[in-house]
Structures are given as C-alpha cells and as structure tokens.
Design goal:
This protein is of the alpha/beta class. It has one domain (2-226): Rossmann fold, CATH 3.40.50. Helix content is 31%, strand content 25%. The strands form two sheets. It has a six-stranded mixed beta sheet, sandwiched between helices. A three-stranded antiparallel beta sheet has the order 2-1-4, covered by helices on one side. Helix 3 packs across helix 4 and helix 6 packs across helix 7. The longest helix is centred in the middle third of the chain and has 18 residues, at 151-168. The chain is globular, with a radius of gyration of 18 Å. It starts with a strand and ends in a 22-residue tail after the last helix. It holds the Pfam family ABC_tran. Keywords: ATP-binding, Nucleotide-binding, Transport.
C-alpha cells in the first residue's frame, strides 16, 4: 500500500525549477530519508507534501492525516506544554488524556503544566513530536528536526523517533543534511540534486545500526559520492559531514 505517490512534480520560482519532474513513492509505514545540499529542493518538496505550498505541474497524492515537525519547535509561548500538544483538538477530558499519553511517550508527562520557555531545546522538540503524533498521522514529515540540537541530544532524539515510528507506524519522510542520521533511521535514502532524485536506495544494514559496520560505512561513502562529497579511503568516516547549511 502507498502513502505518498508523486509523479512528474514541478515547482518553479522565477526562471528556476526547484522541483523538476520528480517521482517518489513512499509505502505505508515506510521511513524515507531525503538528502541534498542547500538549494536542492528538499524543503520545497516537504512543504508541497504538507500542503504548505502548491506545485506548478505533476501530481502529489498524500494522506489527509499528515503532520510536520520543523527544525524549530514552533511552540506557542503563552500556552503550557499540554495545551501546545493538544492545540486545535476539541477540549475535554478525553483530549487531555490523549495529550498526556503523548507526552508520556516522549518522556515529558511531568512537564504537562510547564511553560515552553522553561524547556531545553531537546525537550521543546519532544513536545513538537508529541503534538504531531497525538493526531495519529498516516504521514509524518520531518524537516531537519534535530539540526539545532547538540550531538548527544540529537542521537537521543533519533532513537526516540525510531521508537515512535515503531509504535505508531506512520510513513515518514525525513529531510536532513546528515548522512549518518539518514542511514541510521531510514528504510530507504534518496538524494535530491537540482530538483531531481539521483539516488533512491534501500538501507541494507542490520538494526541497531552501528556507524562502524562495514555495510554502514559503504552506504555512507556511496551517498557522499552521490552528493558530490569526496571522502578519501584514509579519512575518518565518523567525522561531521560538510553538508550543513540553511534548509532548502
């Protein structure tokens, strides 16, 4: 069964096609990571799939039940944590219970009555995840949600997303600059260049995935090459990768 069906998608800004005849399919419950340099069209594609932007051609069929988690948590500062999780849902005891369960899943049930300003960056992103998942989406869109976090918190958040995906079974599209993050989490990794997919490859690495696993290393090197990044055989492959930049 298919959750996302994109064919011939095109989005033009001025005289530039940011998305240029793109095809992409994501199965129900499948986790796909999308890599690409800044300006390659990653976030534009995510915004189209999320209903925040329109296309100039082609088709994009997506579930009505879909949510987006951005790089910034985008919490309402004047609303407590539980209210941020359940914003837009009908008020009442049932909704409150659903929100508390979602916060418990992300380890923040004790922060339900806290104000967003008292949260750390990682905690705020956990609230954003709870807010997305409380609606039980068929499609979860993640736009570099961990890019602003420190390395240790980022790894913990990756583990949390993996566990939430296992429990809730949404289809997931993760936009990221981080090759290791893509390989660690996804079932498939796609590389976007100049608005077109140049790579779409399954991640044939046993879980839990170790960055030192030869299969992990080999896929990392292939994806870096597809991104136009040369890594010598002698270079340490676990160093930070030179792909960070503004979302595109």
């Amino acid at each position: 069964m298919t959750a996302v069906h994109v064919r011939g998608l095109r989005r033009v800004f001025g005289d530039r096609a940011v998305i240029d005849g793109l095809d992409l399919t994501i199965g129900r419950g499948e986790f796909v990571a999308l890599l690409g340099a800044s300006g390659s069209g990653k976030t534009t594609l995510l915004r189209i799939l999320g209903g925040l932007d329109g296309a100039d051609g082609g088709e994009a069929l997506v579930p009505a039940a879909r949510t987006i988690v951005f790089q910034e948590p985008r919490l309402i500062p004047s609303t407590k944590v539980l209210g941020n999780v359940t914003v837009g849902l009908p008020r009442g005891a049932a909704t409150r219970e659903i929100g508390l369960r979602a916060l418990a899943e992300v380890g923040l049930d004790r922060h339900a009555e806290a104000w967003p300003a008292t949260l750390s960056g990682g905690e705020a992103q956990r609230v954003a995840l709870a807010r997305a998942l409380v609606r039980e989406p068929e499609l979860l869109l993640l736009d570099e949600p961990f890019a602003a976090l420190d390395a240790l918190t980022r790894l913990r958040m990756q583990d949390l997303v993996g566990e939430l995906r296992r429990v809730h079974h949404p289809a997931v599209l993760l936009v990221t600059h981080d090759v290791d993050e893509a390989v660690r989490l996804a079932d498939r990794v796609a590389v976007l260049r100049d608005g077109r997919l140049v790579t779409d490859v399954p991640v044939a690495v046993d879980r839990p995935r170790d960055p030192g696993d030869p299969a992990f290393v080999a896929l990392r090197r292939r994806l870096l090459a597809d991104l136009g990044v040369h890594v010598s055989e002698e270079a340490p492959t676990a160093d930070p990768l030179p792909l960070e930049g503004a979302p595109a």
